[in-house]
């Protein structure tokens, strides 16, 4: 997940919600013998989406994680997904700290820790550093450092989805994320974690714990000659049938215009 925001008086910011390699502040596990089957728990990556979304809400103001989550709770209950509803209620109460406290903390460490063959540790539940950063400024836009000009599907990930918006004050915001085609089930809560963590094998170098597991984003803020933000743009959909959406706002009439085009 990547969140990009920008507008007059608030500057431009990127919130990096990409998944992280587990194992922060933990001793290196013994690891799997080369060629051994990989337990599902060893593939589970730590999600950064919740923290990034909560941080962006706090930074921009006018929105809260509670307001974002609340409508989903009755939908989960109506679908019979009581574990998911419980997790959403925890997020509504605790915000981005929901994964690091109470029952969710105990569950993560039990179900994705060493006992189950995973590499999660208590250090993974500490605040994720460097989630809030400035975008790269080019001649005609502001973009995250991991920007891509085309939809790319990483292993285990489905199509990219993007949502863009602009409010009456001229604050632009966008979020991009992948719909997982493969994930590691979190049984206690009926949701899946990203399945692209890299297992630890004996005699092989370990992927640095806490490092970002790379995925791209197509979000960017276009700008005018004087640096003013003109629009927010993103892509979404399957790579062979992707769509580009652009949302702009007239500084004079405040009219919002949207444009959709198929990416060739």
Give a description of the structure:
It contains 5 helices and 13 strands. The model has no long low-confidence stretch (mean pLDDT 90). The longest helix has 13 residues, at 82-94. The protein is of the alpha+beta class and 264 residues long. Helix content is 18%, strand content 27%. The chain has helices spanning 49-60, 65-69, 72-78, 82-94, 102-112, and strands spanning 2-7, 11-16, 132-133, 136-137, 141-143, 157-166, 172-180, 183-186, 191-194, 220-223, 229-236, 243-249, 256-262. Strands 4-5-10-11-12-13 form a 6-stranded antiparallel β-sheet, with no helix packed on it.
Q: List SSEs in N-to-C order.
A: EEHHHHHEEEEEEEEEEE
In terms of per-residue confidence, which ranges show pLDDT below 50 for 5 or more consecutive residues?
none
End-to-end C-alpha gap: 24 Å
Strand-pairing-aware structural class: alpha+beta
The average pLDDT is 90
């Amino acid at each position: 997940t990547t969140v990009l925001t920008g507008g007059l008086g608030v500057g431009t910011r990127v919130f990096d919600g990409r998944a992280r390699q587990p194992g922060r502040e933990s001793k290196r596990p013994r690891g799997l013998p080369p060629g051994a089957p990989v337990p599902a728990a060893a593939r589970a990556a730590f999600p950064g989406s919740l923290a990034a979304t909560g941080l962006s809400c706090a930074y921009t103001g006018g929105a809260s994680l509670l307001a974002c989550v609340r409508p989903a709770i009755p939908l989960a209950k109506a679908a019979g997904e009581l574990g998911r509803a419980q997790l959403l209620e925890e997020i509504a109460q605790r915000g981005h700290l929901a994964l690091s406290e109470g029952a969710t903390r105990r569950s993560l460490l039990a179900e994705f820790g060493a006992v189950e063959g995973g590499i999660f540790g208590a250090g993974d539940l500490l605040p994720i550093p460097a989630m809030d950063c400035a975008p790269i400024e080019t001649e005609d836009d502001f973009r995250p450092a991991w920007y891509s000009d085309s939809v790319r599907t990483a292993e285990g990930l489905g199509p990219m989805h993007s949502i863009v918006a602009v409010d009456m004050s001229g604050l632009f915001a966008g979020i991009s994320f992948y719909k997982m085609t493969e994930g590691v089930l979190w049984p206690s809560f009926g949701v899946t974690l990203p399945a692209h963590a890299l297992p630890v094998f004996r005699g092989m170098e370990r992927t640095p714990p806490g490092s970002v597991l790379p995925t791209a984003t197509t979000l960017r803020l276009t700008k005018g000659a004087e640096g003013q933000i003109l629009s927010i743009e993103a892509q979404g959909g399957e790579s062979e049938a992707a769509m580009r959406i652009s949302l702009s706002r007239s500084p004079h009439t405040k009219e919002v215009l949207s444009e959709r085009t198929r990416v060739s």
